[in-house]
């Protein structure tokens, strides 16, 4: 790696900072200024901590740049200044957080008239946010001293960066007590009421959106904090203010008592939906409220429902007369009027109200026939799946929820079964069954004529399956069965035929397609999970449902109905062709373990002829290379090749010979047939008169002091005599090559079992090697190492 060897280039900033008149802009023009600052370059940090430099950095992010500057470099220095101030260098944080003059200059940005420059606002918000996280006590004390801080924040709430700064104050302040003090301070400053005032038709859409988002985040953050810190003695004052009935009534008054404004209406509905959120996960992995646990974040405040109930008629009227929308042309036709964001959010609000299962709310919806209007929209806007899913949720909750308790019908009453007024209204007043049958029949007729399948048919299939399921197993099953039985005979017969025919066929087709075919293009049915063989319990805690995956093992058929006889025969035939079995008897081949005589041919017989190719010579083994004359020249020409006399072939027989006879044989026992030893009597020693080197350009002088250093050619003698005659033997050879004269000698001492090899070049001693003679044993026969 480059940094391992310190190959990085030296920063030019160090050299630049050595200048006495260096300016801040010159430093910021350097490409690696941010990198050096985050690396806490001491020279650079000391330079930036100068009072004038810190003031200039704050000025860059709070004042508009000059208008005559080119646009692409207009915000270069403000951007670099923001990055330097937020590089999280402790010295810079300390200087900026403790210098009140710099904080006042930074705070002056909020005193500008709206709208704020969005880019500079983001720089300001980023710098102040990191100060809140690193210096919370100093920054909170400074902001509380500014009497107009909350007013200015609300004034600029239309700028997203200012909204983010407000939320940062609620989430990044530690410890808990300091955060609680900030919440109490903001509540005393009536920040909730001021945000509510921003959501009215007279304000622009940005203020509507940001104020609504701020209130929604305050609700979620406060509820999450209450769940995580359950031991907190003080409630969240901002959440308590938001859940008050008068606060909700003020929100609704802003949108209904004045002119209709879609942006304001949608913003208020978003806040109400957040207030109606129940069993919201406070952290990852937590899906719902634990059983038996009562927590404010898991129940809808009754005061909110009381504030909404009188305004249900206004929401119902929005479904009939939404804010004016222009005609919309689509690929399949013209929407006049389109559904619009207002009506879609009203339907979502109705679904949330139904989930609360409050008798007064349910009764008001029935009186207004809101469900009937929603069903009319469902069948009218056949391609709006956002609307279809919300209607499906409404119908599913009505069918699955138990009847809502009333004041005159307490929960303890069990003498008679309570009935759901919503289900009764849905089946009788809204003619739910008849409308499903009519829509299904109309779609089939249209498809038979070559038309397209309507966009709501997938959701309609799921709604029909929900009715069938709740009729058999739901808590309102008896009531649903009773209402179906009260249908006119013709409608009842159509419904029964529809369930057993068209609906069953659709479910079967969807299930098969989803399980084994092009499932991405099909619609998943409600009973797909049951028919496919999996359920949610299999993915739950395995300690509780460990036996569930084994319930259907008996239904699984593991047998394979295939004809394996042909495959087995083919396999055996191939095995006989490829595998040769070892047979102990009847084999014509030689046994590899039989004892055989080992014959060593002379070197000349194994050497390839002079006409052999390179490829043939390259196949010589390493053993052949080791047996060549160590003084043989490396010239491969035929003229320089050394020849070896062809002597008689000798045979080594490794028969089992007792150790006592191996070394004490008589002189007459010289035959290998009698002793089992190799006979070297006919071996011709190397001599100067031999034609071994007659063709070699190198002349050699060999002394004949002892021609057989190991005595291998001597006749066999008794042990004592053999050792005495060969106690000290030596051989010397002289090689002359031009002016180069080299003498080598080998001296063998049998008594000490050592050998000394000496080499002299031009009468100078150059090398001396000592060897230890060893006796190699090939059980049970021992023989001495042979030297050649």
From TrEMBL:
<protein>
    <submittedName>
        <fullName>Protein phosphatase 6, regulatory subunit 3</fullName>
    </submittedName>
</protein>
<dbReference type="GO" id="GO:0019903">
    <property type="term" value="F:protein phosphatase binding"/>
</dbReference>
<comment type="similarity">
    <text>Belongs to the SAPS family.</text>
</comment>
<dbReference type="InterPro" id="IPR016024">
    <property type="entry name" value="ARM-type_fold"/>
</dbReference>
<dbReference type="GO" id="GO:0005634">
    <property type="term" value="C:nucleus"/>
</dbReference>
<dbReference type="Pfam" id="PF04499">
    <property type="entry name" value="SAPS"/>
</dbReference>
<dbReference type="GO" id="GO:0019888">
    <property type="term" value="F:protein phosphatase regulator activity"/>
</dbReference>
<feature type="compositionally biased region" description="Acidic residues">
    <location>
        <begin position="614"/>
        <end position="624"/>
    </location>
</feature>
<feature type="region of interest" description="Disordered">
    <location>
        <begin position="599"/>
        <end position="651"/>
    </location>
</feature>
<dbReference type="GO" id="GO:0005829">
    <property type="term" value="C:cytosol"/>
</dbReference>
<dbReference type="InterPro" id="IPR007587">
    <property type="entry name" value="SAPS"/>
</dbReference>
